[in-house]
Amino acid sequence: MNAIFQRTSVRKYENKEIENEKIELLLKAAMSAPSAANQQPWEFYIVKDKDIIDKLSNCSPYAKCVKGAPVAIVNCYRKDIEMPEYAEIDLSACTENILLEAVELGLGAVWIGIAPLVDRMQSVKDILGIPDHLHAFAIIPVGYPINEDNQQDRYDKTRVHYK
Protein backbone atom coordinates (compact mmCIF):
# COMPACT_ATOMS: atom_id res chain seq x y z
CA MET A 1 0.00 0.00 0.00
CA ASN A 2 2.97 2.35 0.30
CA ALA A 3 2.86 3.12 -3.43
CA ILE A 4 -0.56 4.72 -2.98
CA PHE A 5 0.85 7.15 -0.42
CA GLN A 6 4.13 7.74 -2.27
CA ARG A 7 2.78 8.30 -5.78
CA THR A 8 3.23 11.80 -7.15
CA SER A 9 2.94 13.25 -10.62
CA VAL A 10 6.47 13.16 -12.01
CA ARG A 11 7.18 15.42 -14.98
CA LYS A 12 11.00 15.55 -15.08
CA TYR A 13 13.13 12.53 -15.83
CA GLU A 14 16.76 11.50 -15.93
CA ASN A 15 18.23 10.87 -19.36
CA LYS A 16 18.28 7.14 -18.67
CA GLU A 17 16.71 4.29 -20.59
CA ILE A 18 14.06 2.19 -18.86
CA GLU A 19 14.73 -1.53 -18.83
CA ASN A 20 12.34 -3.63 -20.94
CA GLU A 21 11.64 -5.81 -17.91
CA LYS A 22 10.29 -2.79 -16.05
CA ILE A 23 8.12 -1.77 -19.01
CA GLU A 24 6.68 -5.28 -19.06
CA LEU A 25 5.92 -5.06 -15.32
CA LEU A 26 4.12 -1.76 -15.90
CA LEU A 27 2.00 -3.43 -18.57
CA LYS A 28 1.30 -6.46 -16.38
CA ALA A 29 0.11 -4.09 -13.66
CA ALA A 30 -2.06 -2.24 -16.18
CA MET A 31 -3.66 -5.45 -17.42
CA SER A 32 -4.36 -6.55 -13.84
CA ALA A 33 -6.87 -3.72 -13.44
CA PRO A 34 -10.53 -4.55 -12.96
CA SER A 35 -12.84 -3.98 -15.91
CA ALA A 36 -16.60 -4.12 -16.39
CA ALA A 37 -17.69 -7.64 -17.33
CA ASN A 38 -13.96 -8.48 -17.42
CA GLN A 39 -13.92 -7.01 -20.92
CA GLN A 40 -10.30 -5.83 -20.70
CA PRO A 41 -10.70 -3.24 -23.48
CA TRP A 42 -7.10 -2.02 -23.38
CA GLU A 43 -4.26 -2.01 -25.86
CA PHE A 44 -0.94 -0.20 -25.48
CA TYR A 45 1.57 1.69 -27.57
CA ILE A 46 5.06 1.88 -26.06
CA VAL A 47 6.86 4.86 -27.55
CA LYS A 48 10.65 5.17 -27.29
CA ASP A 49 11.27 7.06 -30.54
CA LYS A 50 12.28 10.62 -29.56
CA ASP A 51 10.68 12.19 -32.65
CA ILE A 52 7.34 10.56 -31.87
CA ILE A 53 7.64 11.48 -28.18
CA ASP A 54 8.23 15.10 -29.25
CA LYS A 55 5.09 15.03 -31.39
CA LEU A 56 3.04 13.56 -28.55
CA SER A 57 4.18 16.42 -26.31
CA ASN A 58 2.14 18.77 -28.53
CA CYS A 59 -1.16 16.85 -28.32
CA SER A 60 -2.34 18.80 -25.31
CA PRO A 61 -1.30 21.98 -23.53
CA TYR A 62 -0.60 19.73 -20.52
CA ALA A 63 1.64 17.28 -22.41
CA LYS A 64 4.85 19.34 -22.62
CA CYS A 65 6.52 17.11 -20.00
CA VAL A 66 6.20 14.13 -22.34
CA LYS A 67 9.11 15.54 -24.35
CA GLY A 68 11.66 14.74 -21.64
CA ALA A 69 10.54 11.18 -20.98
CA PRO A 70 12.50 8.16 -22.19
CA VAL A 71 9.23 6.26 -22.68
CA ALA A 72 5.63 7.24 -23.24
CA ILE A 73 2.87 4.70 -22.82
CA VAL A 74 -0.31 5.44 -24.74
CA ASN A 75 -3.18 3.30 -23.60
CA CYS A 76 -6.13 2.86 -25.91
CA TYR A 77 -9.51 1.20 -25.66
CA ARG A 78 -11.69 -0.80 -28.00
CA LYS A 79 -15.37 0.00 -28.33
CA ASP A 80 -16.28 -3.35 -29.94
CA ILE A 81 -16.89 -4.80 -26.49
CA GLU A 82 -19.88 -5.92 -24.48
CA MET A 83 -20.11 -2.73 -22.38
CA PRO A 84 -18.43 0.12 -24.30
CA GLU A 85 -19.90 2.74 -21.98
CA TYR A 86 -17.50 1.51 -19.29
CA ALA A 87 -14.33 1.48 -21.40
CA GLU A 88 -13.01 4.83 -20.15
CA ILE A 89 -13.68 3.81 -16.55
CA ASP A 90 -11.77 0.58 -17.17
CA LEU A 91 -8.86 2.54 -18.67
CA SER A 92 -8.80 4.82 -15.64
CA ALA A 93 -8.17 1.84 -13.38
CA CYS A 94 -5.57 0.56 -15.83
CA THR A 95 -3.79 3.94 -15.84
CA GLU A 96 -3.72 4.15 -12.06
CA ASN A 97 -2.15 0.70 -11.88
CA ILE A 98 0.65 1.89 -14.17
CA LEU A 99 1.26 4.91 -11.94
CA LEU A 100 1.39 2.77 -8.80
CA GLU A 101 3.67 0.13 -10.33
CA ALA A 102 5.99 2.91 -11.49
CA VAL A 103 6.50 3.88 -7.84
CA GLU A 104 7.23 0.25 -6.92
CA LEU A 105 9.88 0.10 -9.66
CA GLY A 106 11.62 3.34 -8.66
CA LEU A 107 10.18 5.16 -11.66
CA GLY A 108 8.06 8.27 -11.98
CA ALA A 109 5.09 8.92 -14.23
CA VAL A 110 2.19 11.26 -14.79
CA TRP A 111 -1.26 10.80 -16.31
CA ILE A 112 -1.83 13.09 -19.28
CA GLY A 113 -5.54 12.93 -20.03
CA ILE A 114 -6.45 12.68 -23.70
CA ALA A 115 -9.97 11.18 -23.68
CA PRO A 116 -12.71 12.27 -23.93
CA LEU A 117 -11.50 15.32 -25.90
CA VAL A 118 -11.94 14.29 -29.52
CA ASP A 119 -9.31 16.65 -30.97
CA ARG A 120 -6.63 15.35 -28.59
CA MET A 121 -7.64 11.74 -29.17
CA GLN A 122 -7.44 12.28 -32.93
CA SER A 123 -4.06 13.98 -32.66
CA VAL A 124 -2.59 10.99 -30.79
CA LYS A 125 -4.27 8.60 -33.21
CA ASP A 126 -2.74 10.41 -36.20
CA ILE A 127 0.76 10.51 -34.70
CA LEU A 128 0.82 6.82 -33.83
CA GLY A 129 -1.24 5.53 -36.74
CA ILE A 130 -3.75 3.98 -34.36
CA PRO A 131 -6.39 1.96 -36.23
CA ASP A 132 -10.01 3.12 -36.24
CA HIS A 133 -11.25 0.44 -33.83
CA LEU A 134 -9.03 1.89 -31.06
CA HIS A 135 -9.40 5.16 -29.18
CA ALA A 136 -6.49 6.90 -27.45
CA PHE A 137 -7.16 7.38 -23.74
CA ALA A 138 -4.04 8.80 -22.10
CA ILE A 139 -0.35 9.48 -22.52
CA ILE A 140 1.75 8.30 -19.59
CA PRO A 141 5.35 9.54 -19.74
CA VAL A 142 7.60 7.33 -17.61
CA GLY A 143 11.19 7.66 -16.48
CA TYR A 144 13.57 7.79 -13.58
CA PRO A 145 12.58 10.91 -11.64
CA ILE A 146 15.06 13.77 -11.31
CA ASN A 147 13.48 14.95 -8.05
CA GLU A 148 11.88 12.98 -5.25
CA ASP A 149 8.71 14.72 -4.11
CA ASN A 150 6.63 13.67 -1.14
CA GLN A 151 2.93 13.28 -1.67
CA GLN A 152 0.84 15.68 0.32
CA ASP A 153 -1.64 14.27 2.83
CA ARG A 154 -4.95 14.56 0.99
CA TYR A 155 -7.16 12.95 3.59
CA ASP A 156 -10.02 15.29 4.46
CA LYS A 157 -12.36 13.90 7.07
CA THR A 158 -14.96 16.59 6.28
CA ARG A 159 -15.61 14.72 3.02
CA VAL A 160 -16.48 11.48 4.78
CA HIS A 161 -20.12 10.85 5.72
CA TYR A 162 -21.29 7.94 7.85
CA LYS A 163 -24.95 6.92 7.95
Number of strands: 5
What's the average pLDDT?
A: 95
- Helix content range: 25-40%
Order of helices and strands: HHEHEHEEHE
According to CATH, what is the topology of the domain at 38-145? NADH Oxidase
What structural class is derived from the secondary structure elements? Answer: alpha+beta
Give the number of helices: 5
| Radius of gyration, CA atoms, in whole angstroms | 16 Å
Low-confidence parts lasting 5 or more residues at pLDDT below 50? Answer: none
CATH homologous superfamily title of the domain at 38-145: NADH Oxidase
Mind summarizing the main beta sheet? Answer: 5 strands, antiparallel
N-to-C CA distance = 27 Å
Task: Specify the overall morphology.
Answer: globular
- CATH architecture verdict of the domain at 38-145: 3-Layer(aba) Sandwich
CATH class of the domain at 38-145: Alpha Beta
Provide the β-strand percentage band: 15-25%
